[in-house]
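sry for the spam today, last one i promise. C-alpha coordinates for design, 138 residues
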Protein backbone atom coordinates (compact mmCIF):
# COMPACT_ATOMS: atom_id res chain seq x y z
CA UNK A 1 0.00 0.00 0.00
CA UNK A 2 3.04 2.23 0.28
CA UNK A 3 3.58 4.48 -2.71
CA UNK A 4 -0.06 4.73 -3.76
CA UNK A 5 -1.51 8.11 -4.70
CA UNK A 6 -4.07 8.12 -1.91
CA UNK A 7 -4.88 11.84 -2.38
CA UNK A 8 -5.74 11.33 -6.05
CA UNK A 9 -7.72 8.19 -5.28
CA UNK A 10 -9.66 10.02 -2.58
CA UNK A 11 -10.46 12.97 -4.85
CA UNK A 12 -11.50 10.71 -7.71
CA UNK A 13 -13.63 8.18 -5.83
CA UNK A 14 -14.75 9.87 -2.60
CA UNK A 15 -18.36 10.45 -3.67
CA UNK A 16 -19.05 6.78 -4.38
CA UNK A 17 -20.44 4.63 -1.56
CA UNK A 18 -18.45 1.49 -0.72
CA UNK A 19 -18.96 -1.43 1.59
CA UNK A 20 -15.64 -1.71 3.50
CA UNK A 21 -16.13 -5.42 4.08
CA UNK A 22 -16.65 -6.12 0.37
CA UNK A 23 -13.67 -3.94 -0.58
CA UNK A 24 -11.51 -5.81 1.93
CA UNK A 25 -12.66 -9.20 0.61
CA UNK A 26 -11.98 -8.15 -2.98
CA UNK A 27 -8.51 -6.86 -2.06
CA UNK A 28 -7.66 -10.19 -0.39
CA UNK A 29 -8.97 -12.12 -3.38
CA UNK A 30 -6.93 -10.06 -5.84
CA UNK A 31 -3.78 -10.24 -3.72
CA UNK A 32 -4.11 -14.04 -3.83
CA UNK A 33 -4.77 -14.15 -7.59
CA UNK A 34 -1.64 -15.37 -9.41
CA UNK A 35 -2.73 -13.60 -12.61
CA UNK A 36 -2.53 -10.14 -11.03
CA UNK A 37 0.95 -8.90 -11.81
CA UNK A 38 0.62 -5.34 -10.47
CA UNK A 39 -0.71 -5.21 -6.93
CA UNK A 40 -0.28 -1.44 -6.87
CA UNK A 41 -3.39 -1.04 -9.03
CA UNK A 42 -5.71 -3.21 -6.93
CA UNK A 43 -7.29 -0.40 -4.90
CA UNK A 44 -7.92 1.82 -7.92
CA UNK A 45 -9.32 -1.16 -9.81
CA UNK A 46 -11.82 -1.86 -7.01
CA UNK A 47 -12.70 1.78 -6.41
CA UNK A 48 -13.24 2.25 -10.15
CA UNK A 49 -15.83 -0.50 -10.32
CA UNK A 50 -13.53 -3.45 -11.16
CA UNK A 51 -13.50 -2.58 -14.85
CA UNK A 52 -10.01 -1.45 -15.91
CA UNK A 53 -7.96 -4.68 -15.87
CA UNK A 54 -4.92 -2.77 -17.13
CA UNK A 55 -4.48 -1.50 -13.57
CA UNK A 56 -3.75 -5.09 -12.55
CA UNK A 57 -1.66 -6.08 -15.56
CA UNK A 58 -3.72 -9.25 -15.89
CA UNK A 59 -3.53 -11.80 -18.63
CA UNK A 60 -6.95 -11.15 -20.16
CA UNK A 61 -7.27 -9.65 -23.66
CA UNK A 62 -9.69 -6.75 -23.99
CA UNK A 63 -12.64 -6.91 -26.40
CA UNK A 64 -11.08 -4.52 -28.93
CA UNK A 65 -8.00 -6.74 -29.24
CA UNK A 66 -10.12 -9.88 -29.62
CA UNK A 67 -12.25 -8.30 -32.36
CA UNK A 68 -9.22 -6.93 -34.21
CA UNK A 69 -7.32 -10.22 -34.16
CA UNK A 70 -10.47 -12.17 -35.07
CA UNK A 71 -11.15 -9.93 -38.09
CA UNK A 72 -7.58 -10.19 -39.38
CA UNK A 73 -7.34 -13.92 -38.79
CA UNK A 74 -10.74 -14.58 -40.40
CA UNK A 75 -9.94 -12.50 -43.48
CA UNK A 76 -6.64 -14.32 -44.02
CA UNK A 77 -8.34 -17.70 -43.51
CA UNK A 78 -11.14 -16.95 -45.98
CA UNK A 79 -8.56 -15.95 -48.60
CA UNK A 80 -6.69 -19.25 -48.07
CA UNK A 81 -9.85 -21.37 -47.75
CA UNK A 82 -8.89 -22.71 -44.33
CA UNK A 83 -10.34 -22.47 -40.84
CA UNK A 84 -9.84 -19.29 -38.85
CA UNK A 85 -8.75 -21.48 -35.91
CA UNK A 86 -5.08 -22.18 -36.67
CA UNK A 87 -5.24 -25.58 -34.96
CA UNK A 88 -8.37 -26.65 -36.87
CA UNK A 89 -6.69 -25.58 -40.12
CA UNK A 90 -3.89 -28.09 -39.60
CA UNK A 91 -6.07 -30.76 -37.99
CA UNK A 92 -8.88 -33.10 -38.92
CA UNK A 93 -10.91 -32.80 -42.10
CA UNK A 94 -14.20 -31.97 -40.32
CA UNK A 95 -13.22 -28.44 -39.24
CA UNK A 96 -10.29 -27.84 -41.58
CA UNK A 97 -12.13 -25.08 -43.45
CA UNK A 98 -14.69 -24.03 -40.84
CA UNK A 99 -14.99 -20.31 -40.15
CA UNK A 100 -15.86 -19.95 -36.49
CA UNK A 101 -17.92 -17.04 -35.16
CA UNK A 102 -16.24 -14.69 -32.69
CA UNK A 103 -18.48 -16.04 -29.91
CA UNK A 104 -17.25 -19.56 -30.65
CA UNK A 105 -13.61 -18.60 -30.11
CA UNK A 106 -11.32 -17.62 -27.25
CA UNK A 107 -8.34 -15.29 -27.26
CA UNK A 108 -5.09 -17.13 -26.60
CA UNK A 109 -1.52 -16.07 -25.91
CA UNK A 110 0.82 -17.32 -28.66
CA UNK A 111 3.64 -17.30 -26.09
CA UNK A 112 2.05 -18.39 -22.83
CA UNK A 113 1.41 -15.60 -20.35
CA UNK A 114 2.94 -17.72 -17.59
CA UNK A 115 6.13 -17.95 -19.66
CA UNK A 116 6.43 -14.19 -20.11
CA UNK A 117 4.11 -13.71 -23.08
CA UNK A 118 2.58 -10.27 -23.18
CA UNK A 119 -1.13 -9.51 -23.34
CA UNK A 120 -1.13 -7.47 -26.53
CA UNK A 121 -2.22 -7.77 -30.15
CA UNK A 122 1.13 -9.18 -31.32
CA UNK A 123 0.86 -12.13 -28.93
CA UNK A 124 -2.84 -12.86 -29.45
CA UNK A 125 -4.44 -15.54 -31.59
CA UNK A 126 -8.03 -16.67 -31.70
CA UNK A 127 -8.68 -20.40 -31.24
CA UNK A 128 -11.93 -22.32 -31.24
CA UNK A 129 -13.02 -22.97 -27.67
CA UNK A 130 -12.24 -26.69 -27.94
CA UNK A 131 -8.65 -26.14 -29.02
CA UNK A 132 -8.02 -23.30 -26.58
CA UNK A 133 -9.14 -25.39 -23.63
CA UNK A 134 -7.17 -28.42 -24.81
CA UNK A 135 -3.99 -26.41 -25.46
CA UNK A 136 -3.25 -25.59 -21.84
CA UNK A 137 0.03 -23.89 -20.97
CA UNK A 138 1.93 -24.48 -24.22
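last one done:
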Amino acid sequence: MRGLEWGRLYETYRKQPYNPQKVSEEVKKLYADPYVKTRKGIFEYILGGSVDTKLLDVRVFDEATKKSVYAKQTQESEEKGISNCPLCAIGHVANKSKIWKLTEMDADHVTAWSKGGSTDTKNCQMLCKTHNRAKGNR
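The mean pLDDT is 88. ok im logging off now
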